[in-house]
Amino acid sequence: MNNKFLELRDVLSKNGFIVKTFNNISEAKEELLSEIKKEESIGIGGSMTIQDMDIYDDLKDRGNEIYWHWRKDVENAAVKAINADTYIASTNALTMDGKLVNMDGTGNRVASMIYGHKDVYIVVGKNKICKDYDEASERIKNIAAPMNAKRLNLSTPCTHTGKCIDCDSPQRICRSEVIVHKKPGGTNIHIYLVDEELGY
């Protein structure tokens, strides 16, 4: 297991998060399926990590009520996800002092990560672990944001340069930054640290 994970697990636990470590995404998926009850409704935030986990169909097939705006089988899924019992997402960056750093375009993902659900599961690959906030911010500006903008076929400067210039583009996706320092009250936040590179 990655030594950083062991150090980070202790720091995150002190910050009130429930932390588990996994060798690969398959182990994390198996644990997540066992943790979430079949009668629970589930919202999913936009995430390449969760898409790579390939858990949506497993949850749906066993009978969970599930809302993910990346899938078109439920109308107004992003709105309905807000009221789900459980929320699943990833984070743009995770610092070694135990902070979750996220940038969002619409705000639905970052809002649901901190409020409104009984349980929130954050799945994090080793590529998203950063030394501190400054490194996390750089990661978001020059890796996560440009790659997501390119994935969405947006016409923002970062899709051409690969770097953030703090643009004023109407299609800008960097609009709301949320930093979670400690576990918010009223929500159990489970952080799954996976020893693989996942998502952007």
Automatic annotation (TrEMBL):
Coiled coil: none annotated. Residues 8-194 form the LUD domain. It comes from the Bacteria. InterPro entries: LUD_dom, UCP020269. This is Lactate utilization protein.
